[in-house]
């Protein structure tokens, strides 16, 4: 194993290429997570609601009926998780052949259409696969074959899934954010990215920074400006990168979010009162800080302080 790592270290192009191919396969699985995890969560929530209503307000269950409560997701099979059922066309239910599931290539082979019924297949699938592969290849170039690369890749996989889900559902699931938070703290027990004190303070400061903004905005306007998932995602970056990187992450995410939001309003693709997910901007800013954060901070200190 050590010899193999040395070979990869001596041949960076090989390592980057392998990282690209492997992470494209992971990107294919992330498409499944983005699509299915929200459905699984909704089912769990509905089951909890049904259980509560049956226990405390059975007359409502009798009146409304379980079928109505389950209506938003009743079209999905009874057994539905990240593995079962296997991939199929949502229109004709035709099973997707293994070679058509190849990342990026499979979509191109099918020309973006189902092989059975020619129903269009969303271009988001190859985009997610290519984006994931490109991000991990960039990490491979930056970190080389190291523990930092392996852990940063795990973080990136989580960020891609969170971004896709937040864009679709305005939701950042605890099932992803909380494990990433604890993983960051555990890694920095050995100073993998930052010392433990900075990591602990960063996790708390990351959460409280947006939590404070949330409550200040709510007190002033009576509206909720962001969700609790955003607080937790900021805590993730505080745990991984330390409190020192939080100002950069907040500044970058706010700037990108403002530019995108204003552009969408000006082009009339978004109403001024409609909410937009903030998680993708935090994820992008945090990923940039993961690689180039210290360089950006050093450049700012040299030129403006």
Automatic annotation (TrEMBL):
Major localisation: membrane
Localisation per UniProt entry: Cell inner membrane; Cell membrane
Residue ranges constituting the Prepilin type IV endopeptidase peptidase domain according to the UniProt record: 154-262
GO annotations of cellular component type: plasma membrane
Pfam families linked to this entry: A24_N_bact (PF06750), Peptidase_A24 (PF01478)
Transmembrane spans: 12-34, 149-167, 176-194, 200-221, 233-266, 278-302
Topology with respect to the bilayer: Multi-pass membrane protein
Catalysed reactions, as listed in the record: Typically cleaves a -Gly-|-Phe- bond to release an N-terminal, basic peptide of 5-8 residues from type IV prepilin, and then N-methylates the new N-terminal amino group, the methyl donor being S-adenosyl-L-methionine
Protein keywords: Cell inner membrane, Cell membrane, Hydrolase, Membrane, Methyltransferase, Multifunctional enzyme, Protease, S-adenosyl-L-methionine, Transferase, Transmembrane, Transmembrane helix
Record-linked Gene3D superfamilies: 1.20.120.1220
Function, as annotated: Plays an essential role in type IV pili and type II pseudopili formation by proteolytically removing the leader sequence from substrate proteins and subsequently monomethylating the alpha-amino group of the newly exposed N-terminal phenylalanine.
Name of the protein described by the UniProt record: Prepilin leader peptidase/N-methyltransferase
Source organism of the structure: Parashewanella curva
Phylogenetic lineage: Bacteria, Pseudomonadati, Pseudomonadota, Gammaproteobacteria, Alteromonadales
């Amino acid at each position: 194993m050590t010899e193999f790592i040395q070979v990869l270290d001596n041949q960076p192009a090989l390592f980057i290429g392998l990282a690209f191919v492997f992470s494209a396969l992971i990107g294919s699985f992330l498409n499944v997570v983005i699509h299915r995890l929200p459905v699984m969560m909704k089912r769990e929530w509905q089951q909890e609601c049904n259980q509560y209503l049956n226990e405390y307000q059975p007359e409502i269950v009798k009146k409304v009926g379980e079928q109505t409560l389950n209506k938003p997701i009743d079209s999905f099979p009874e057994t539905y998780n990240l593995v079962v059922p296997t991939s199929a066309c949502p229109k004709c239910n035709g099973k997707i052949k293994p070679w058509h599931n190849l990342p990026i290539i499979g979509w191109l082979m099918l020309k973006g259409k189902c092989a059975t019924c020619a129903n269009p297949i969303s271009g988001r699938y190859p985009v997610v696969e290519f984006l994931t592969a490109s991000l991990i290849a960039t990490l491979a170039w930056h970190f080389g074959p190291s523990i930092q690369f392996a852990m940063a890749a795990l973080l990136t996989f989580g960020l891609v899934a969170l971004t896709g889900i937040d864009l679709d559902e305005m939701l950042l699931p605890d099932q992803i954010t909380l494990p990433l938070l604890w993983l960051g703290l555990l890694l920095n027990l050995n100073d993998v990215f930052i010392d433990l004190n900075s990591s602990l303070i960063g996790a708390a400061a990351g959460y409280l920074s947006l939590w404070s903004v949330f409550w200040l905005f709510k007190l002033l306007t009576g509206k909720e400006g962001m969700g609790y998932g955003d607080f937790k995602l900021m805590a993730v970056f505080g745990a991984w990168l330390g409190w020192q990187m939080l100002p950069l992450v907040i500044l970058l995410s706010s700037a990108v979010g403002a530019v995108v939001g204003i552009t969408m309003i000006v082009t009339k693709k978004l109403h001024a009162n409609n909410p937009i997910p903030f998680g993708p901007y935090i994820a992008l800013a945090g990923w940039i800080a993961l690689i180039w954060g210290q360089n950006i901070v050093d450049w700012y200190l040299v030129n403006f302080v």
